[in-house]
Amino acid sequence: MAPEVHAERVRFLLNVLWFIFGGGFLLAIGYGIAAVICFILIITIPFGIAAGRLALYSMWPFGRTVVSRPGAGVGSGLANILWVVLFGWWIALAHLTAGIALCITIIGIPFGIANFKLVPVAFWPLGREIVDAD
């Protein structure tokens, strides 16, 4: 079996286990509800887009990564500052705490790492995009 096929199968298995047992389903629902609320409030639509991106990423994190979007301007930086003050710091802290708690057990280490991957994008989500790790 080719190493690429093996790696793809392991990522799929980890994503399924994450979705069911690691909190991926609950995180996706939480971020999805936040996105809908932000869309309803109209002025917070950029935050809704970021929350939707977080919902998709938190549902299926293995095999994907977050990169900075080169075209993001000053507006996304200012909105990120507002995000950090209102939401980002406690969401990032929650992912950090969950990651530490999950890393206590050997079985939970991959799920803890997935939570650590969510910390930077939960803290500073605008001006970033989620891409395949390959």
UniProtKB/TrEMBL annotation:
Domain Inner membrane component: 13-64, 78-128
Keyword Membrane (UniProt): yes
Keyword Cell membrane in annotation: no
Residue ranges crossing the lipid bilayer per the database entry: 12-33, 39-60, 72-92, 98-119
InterPro entries: Inner_membrane_protein, UCP028777, YccF
Assigned keywords, A-Z: Membrane, Transmembrane, Transmembrane helix
PANTHER family to which the protein is assigned, alphabetical: INNER MEMBRANE PROTEIN YCCF
Protein name: Inner membrane component domain-containing protein
Lineage: Bacteria, Bacillati, Actinomycetota, Actinomycetes, Micromonosporales
